[in-house]
């Protein structure tokens, strides 16, 4: 017997997973099919029909779909966003802050230890927490500029798989330097306007280096020309 005695109950039983070995030929077949169709949903439907159902059952999930296009923001999310925006604006005015940045860190227990807050104070940085559960409307990183680099990484990975299938007929993992190059290219491709749009949708003012507010320039679309022949 290991560990302490259990006072009552049987405890949580470990999940039983089924281990299946997959031949290299089948892996190549799956990768080749994905390269040909480009749709991961079709791959799952063809080769892993029981995967979605088993995942949903294990995690007690269900599939739901939007009932209409342009689903509006919930009243609770809108209220939280309004309050958060006002808090940020008050701090900016009270402290004379010249710019706002968004540090997208993982887990609130990692973001505000005393050593971090003390060091931030020494550097003249004021930390303000993003409301939990509402980062999708209050955090600029989640709103616009987290997804494009991830999409770039996924595209690079899929291209790598396709290359391995065509050239070698087997899988070889990318090197660390190649992964870093993919990540760097994904962030380099992120435009300043995309980053600013995240702050704009979170209703946080972006400032120029000279202390003036940044205003996105208006885009003038060309007027359509109607040609009439006699």
Features:
2 domains; single chain; 230 residues; 0% strand; extended; mainly alpha
Helix and strand layout, with pairings?
Layout lengths: L23 H14 L2 H8 L3 H8 L16 H21 L12 H4 L2 H9 L12 H4 L1 H6 L1 H21 L8 H13 L3 H10 L29
Helix pairs in contact: 1-2, 1-9, 9-10
If you had to describe this structure to a student in words, what would you say it looks like?
This protein is mainly alpha-helical and 230 residues long. It has 2 domains: 24-58, no CATH class; 75-213, no CATH class. Helices cover 51% and strands 0% of the residues. The chain is built from 11 helices and no strands. It has helices at residues 24-37, 40-47, 51-58, 75-95, 108-111, 114-122, 135-138, 140-145, 147-167, 176-188, 192-201. Helix 9 (147-167) crosses helix 10 (176-188). The protein is extended, with a radius of gyration of 25 Å. Residues 105-109 and 224-230 have low confidence and may be disordered.
- The H/E string reads HHHHHHHHHHH
> How many strands?
0
**Which structural category fits the helices and strands?**
mainly alpha
Low-confidence stretches: 105-109, 224-230
Largest sheet: none
Shape: extended
N- to C-terminal distance: 98 Å
- Gyration radius (Cα, Å) is 25 Å
Total number of domains: 2
Mean of all residue-level pLDDT scores: 75
Q: What is the number of helical segments per DSSP (H or I, 4+ residues)?
A: 11
Q: How much β-strand is present in the residues?
A: under 5%
User: In which range does the helix fraction lie?
Assistant: 40-55%
């Amino acid at each position: 017997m290991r560990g302490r005695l259990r006072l009552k109950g049987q405890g949580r039983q470990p999940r039983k997973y089924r281990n299946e070995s997959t031949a290299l030929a089948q892996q190549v077949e799956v990768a080749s099919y994905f390269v040909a169709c480009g749709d991961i949903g079709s791959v799952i439907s063809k080769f892993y029909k029981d995967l979605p159902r088993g995942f949903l059952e294990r995690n007690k999930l269900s599939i739901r779909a939007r009932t209409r296009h342009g689903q509006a923001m919930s009243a609770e999310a809108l209220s939280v966003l309004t309050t958060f925006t006002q808090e940020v604006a008050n701090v900016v005015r009270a402290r004379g802050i010249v710019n706002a940045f968004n540090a997208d860190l993982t887990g609130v227990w990692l973001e505000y230890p005393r050593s971090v807050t003390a060091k931030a104070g020494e550097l003249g940085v004021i930390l303000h927490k993003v409301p939990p559960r509402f980062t999708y409307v209050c955090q600029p990183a989640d709103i616009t500029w987290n997804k494009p680099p991830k999409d770039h990484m996924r595209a690079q990975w899929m291209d790598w798989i396709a290359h391995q299938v065509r050239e070698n007929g087997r899988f070889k993992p990318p090197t660390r330097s190649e992964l870093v190059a993919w990540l760097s290219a994904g962030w380099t491709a992120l435009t300043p306007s995309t980053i600013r749009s995240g702050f704009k949708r979170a209703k946080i003012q972006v400032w120029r280096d000279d202390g003036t507010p940044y205003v996105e320039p208006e885009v003038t679309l060309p007027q359509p020309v109607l040609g009439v022949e006699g």
